[in-house]
Amino acid sequence: MFNPQTLKKDFPIFTHRPDLVYLDSAATALKPQMVIDAEQEYLEQHSTNIARGLYPLAEQTTEKFEKARETVARFIGAQSPQEIVFTSGTTASINLVAQLLEHGILPGQNIVVTEMEHHSNFLPWKELAARKNIEFRIAPIDADERIDLAALAKLVDRETAIVAFSAVSNVLGTINPVQEITAQVKQKNSQALVLVDAAQAIAHIPIDVTEWDADFIAFSAHKAFGPTGVGVLYGKQALLETLSPVTFGGGMVLDACAPTTLYQAIPTRFEAGTPNIGGVIALGAALDYISATSLADIRLHELSLIEYAVQKLQETFRDTIRIIGPQSIQERSGIIAFTLANIHPHDIAHLLGEQNICVRAGEHCTAPLHRALGLSATTRISFSIYNTEQDVDRLVDELKKIVLLLK
Ligand code: PMP
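Above: inputs. Below: predicted complex with 4'-deoxy-4'-aminopyridoxal-5'-phosphate.
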């Protein structure tokens, strides 16, 4: 039975800081003991490199590392672990795809993104378009702050090389219809490649890459209860096999002396150098933790918190609060960004912080979105499995005091 009070006990930070109200899981999720143990166990008991060592200890480490790859593949419904490339995070995964595809981009092609993208899924494409001197197209959001699907469809044409969009917006909380968007893109141009930024989806909604049919998917371990410095790039096997590596070094080569260097098979070919071994093993534990908790239950819990919070914020602050993002709760993940009574979000976050309530304030790495919304900053709260209605009550109580103090 899903119970946030019981689940909270899995997160040692609450033992150290019993008063903590953590409403910033969209920035990074807290870590359960199981994940900490997995990383510690590697550091204490294995501590060896992968793939290179032939002694049992190194073989065991390689086995654990590859087991984590299998766990990731299973978690997102990939066809094979070979479709999983480990990186250092979402940002690194998206930049890697931009580099991998650069060579094949032709004059006259274009790249399409959306207005709601995080800078990590905006700038690599903007820069790639600039390097290749091709058009960079930005699909707008509609009046309900969802991707304007009709406008997106118009931007995709026979010259579109890449379409990149997020599964869940890190500000609006909008859950985008990934499958529908991918199908729409492929219908207009079957050659266009689709990349989905799943950073805000991975720990909140079930993902099935086969259903999504996207060519690439990127996410970070740290937003899914795993450690920082580890990320995943999923790519369709047939596609990855056509791509040449862009980072060179140890571990990814078969024959370095051949006139034309021979590289390892996928995914190793894209993983030059020693990876974050303990981090990858801990990511495997983090995904096991989510599976054991059940993503369906996590989603239901976050939905009920969003509903409670939106209602309570609106009832309390009425026309002085502007909650951005879709009106329909069902279309939102556990994120609420808002402006309140002309008080600067930085002041709100600072004063809440003094009461051990952690929220985020600013542009949240989405300058194009904030510009489209006509806002310079917002305050963002984001939920995870350890949040409760009491957290929302404490937030609202403190916000009331801040409004009285600063309005
Ligand atoms: N995309 C989205 C939607 C995000 O929310 C974030 C993190 N805020 C990123 C990309 C970048 O993730 P990372 O910093 O872990 O690379």
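The pocket of 4'-deoxy-4'-aminopyridoxal-5'-phosphate is lined by residues 89-91, 118, 120-121, 166, 170, 197, 199-200, 220, 222, 365 (CB under 6 Å).
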